[in-house]
Specification:
By secondary structure, the protein is of the alpha/beta class. It is built from ten helices and 22 strands. Helix 1 packs parallel to helix 10.
Length: 431
């Protein structure tokens, strides 16, 4: 029996025994547990909780019947409010230990609905005759196997209800073993399912897909190769889905395989918070780095500022330009292609002076961009992060070498019941 001391960044309980650190999946701080190791190393062990002898006050009953087996969620056994607090500690620890910085202010956490929140999901599909045919779901924990899922609590109920019908659909196809993935993308008025098909469907397969789409009111796309190959199949559709940011009178188009936030409710709050912190003013010149399809760029443009969105993908730049036209903001928003992972001081200088800057990078962060900032750098930078470790690293560079103060930081619970930590930070030029 062992006492759990804290949670790590993966949502595992942390304890110590015989000079080793023990990481225990399913255990919570303050609990007395027994555990079963599944990987032993000289300085640490990875383990699974076996019995909770004395539970923590924050422990709750997981809603999903597949929790513990499915790899989609790791924290359903922890109260939702405690999950947010744990993620804030992860952010604070990363800023302190990696970046050697401390924010002047901790922002209130951004959070929303804890269940049925996912508008995006990538379900694996596998044909397993020994288990009765097709399985549709997330991967099992620490395994490439597909969880034998019948429901999913983090997607909308109408989508959860499709898991069993989708099994029946795949079982009825002529190539059930050549459909490895079904991706979900929800728009304002379309539930899109992107079927990854490694071989072409025959006429009977196509009939089954059309009947399924009519019965369950979904839009099928087929993806024979990479994400860019996804095209509408049935019903007739132009291939563009839409989501709205009503507070800014913005509508954003996207294809179902282009990046959008999985949690549209939290995204709307995040955009509002980001714009409030960035505080763009009419006439200012603003940079939106790693702008994607314009999720932040267009609300900034709506403020009256002149905004330049920079993105490394030519197709995303084209989509962002189309979205600017859709919202009649082409005079306020310009989009350019540039590799921000390789940008240097000369390349950044060519873009001109910016009064303020928004940075929203992938998990690798934006260290080269930050190193490229010169003396005339923006007086305020708002940094939206999906990786607290790279945010902390970049914060250290901004504070210690670029003359910024870390004015504020806070967490965004974009993925309830997972250990994934998104965050936002504000940097202000000193002097």
């Amino acid at each position: 029996m062992i006492r759990v001391e804290s949670l790590d960044q993966e949502g595992r309980g942390v304890a110590h025994a015989d000079g080793k650190v023990i990481f225990i999946s399913g255990a919570l701080p303050g609990e007395l547990v027994t555990y079963t190791p599944y990987q032993k190393k000289p300085k640490y062990e990875l383990a699974q909780v076996q019995q909770v002898v004395r539970p923590a006050a924050t422990r709750t009953t997981p809603r999903c019947r597949h929790f513990g087996m499915c790899g989609g969620c790791s924290m359903q056994h922890l109260d939702a409010r405690a999950q947010v607090a744990a993620k804030q500690r992860v952010l604070e620890d990363n800023l302190s230990h990696i970046g050697k910085v401390c924010p002047d202010q901790m922002l209130p956490a951004i959070y929303g609905e804890a269940w049925g929140y996912r508008d995006r999901a990538r379900f694996s599909a596998r044909y397993v005759p020994k288990k009765g045919g097709a399985l549709i779901g997330f991967r099992e924990k620490r395994s490439s196997h597909v969880t034998d899922m019948t429901t999913c609590e983090v997607v909308p109920p109408r989508i959860s209800a499709l898991l069993l019908p989708l099994r029946e659909l795949v079982n009825g196809l002529s190539i059930p073993d050549r459909v490895p993935q079904i991706e979900l993308a929800i728009g304002n008025d379309v539930d899109a399912l992107v079927v990854r098909n490694l071989q072409q469907f025959n006429a009977d397969d196509e009939r089954l897909l059309r009947e399924f789409a009519d019965r369950h009111r979904v839009q099928f796309f087929l993806q024979p190769q990479g994400p860019e190959s996804a095209t509408p199949f049935y019903p007739a559709h132009d291939g563009v889905l839409y989501y709205s940011l009503p507070e800014f009178a913005i509508t954003i188009g996207f294809s179902p395989t282009e990046f959008t936030q999985v949690n549209s409710g939290v995204n709307a709050v995040l955009v509002r918070r980001t714009l409030a912190l960035l505080a763009p003013q009419p006439g200012e010149r603003i940079a939106d780095m790693f702008c994607g399809i314009g999720n932040f760029t267009l609300p900034i443009a709506r403020s009256g500022a002149r905004v330049i969105g920079i993105e490394g993908s030519r197709s995303l730049v084209a989509r962002a330009q189309a979205n600017a036209g859709l919202n009649q903001l082409t005079a306020q928003a310009e989009f350019l292609k540039a590799d921000l992972f390789r940008i240097d001081r000369a390349g950044l200088a060519q873009l001109g002076h910016f009064d303020r800057m928004l940075i929203d990078p992938p998990r690798d962060g934006a260290v080269e961009l930050i190193k490229a900032l010169a003396e005339d750098a923006p007086r305020r930078i708002v940094y939206v992060s999906c990786n607290p470790a790279t945010l902390a690293r970049d914060a250290g560079v901004l504070v210690q070498t670029r003359g910024y103060a870390l004015s504020a930081a806070g967490v965004i619970n974009m993925f309830p019941h997972t250990s994934h930590v998104e965050s936002i930070a504000v940097f202000d030029k000193v002097g």
